[in-house]
């Protein structure tokens, strides 16, 4: 059974950087879409990035709010997906979750309802 564990959250100053990890166990992350979602205080969870893994190649998608600042990547050997957060702003504060959709028929998706498997999240706080 697939388990997802996020890590890397913490307190970071505005303009700073952070690397989040999503470690998967139980199932190999192949032919799937791995998404990162964020839930800010008092707001709904939003999809911010995803990486589609298909036949050994990958493609990525970013929400406009993080494009150019965040980078998603995957380490096949570690079965882990990363989200590099740069130029952080206070509005980036929130719980960050990774999720998995098995299959590549959707191409890519940032819709929460498409994902069946979720981690418990890691908190990123951007504050001076």
Could you walk me through the main structural features you see in this protein, from its secondary elements to its overall organization?
The protein has strands at residues 3-7, 10-12, 18-25, 32-39, 46-54, 57-62, 70-75, 80-85, 94-102, 117-118, 122-126. It contains no helices and 11 strands. It has 128 residues and is mainly β. Strands 2, 4, 5, 6, 9, 10 and 11 form a 7-stranded mixed sheet that branches. A 4-stranded antiparallel sheet has the order 1-3-8-7, with no helix packed on it.
Describe the SSE topology:
Layout: E1 3-7, E2 10-12, E3 18-25, E4 32-39, E5 46-54, E6 57-62, E7 70-75, E8 80-85, E9 94-102, E10 117-118, E11 122-126
Parallel strand pairs: 2-11
Antiparallel strand pairs: 1-3, 3-8, 4-5, 4-9, 5-6, 7-8, 9-10, 9-11
Question: Keywords for this structure?
Answer:
128 residues, four-stranded antiparallel β-sheet, mainly beta, single chain, seven-stranded mixed β-sheet
């Amino acid at each position: 059974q697939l388990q997802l564990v996020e890590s890397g959250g913490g307190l970071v100053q505005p303009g700073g950087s952070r690397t989040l990890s999503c470690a998967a166990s139980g199932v190999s992350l192949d032919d799937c879409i791995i998404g990162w979602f964020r839930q800010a205080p008092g707001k709904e969870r939003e999809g911010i990035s995803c990486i589609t893994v298909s036949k050994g190649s990958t493609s990525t998608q970013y929400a406009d709010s993080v494009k150019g600042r965040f980078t998603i990547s995957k380490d096949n050997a570690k079965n882990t997906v990363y989200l590099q957060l740069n130029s952080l702003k206070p509005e980036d504060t929130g719980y960050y979750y990774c999720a998995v959709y098995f299959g590549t028929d959707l191409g890519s998706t940032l819709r929460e309802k498409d994902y069946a498997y979720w981690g418990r999240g890691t908190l990123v706080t951007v504050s001076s």
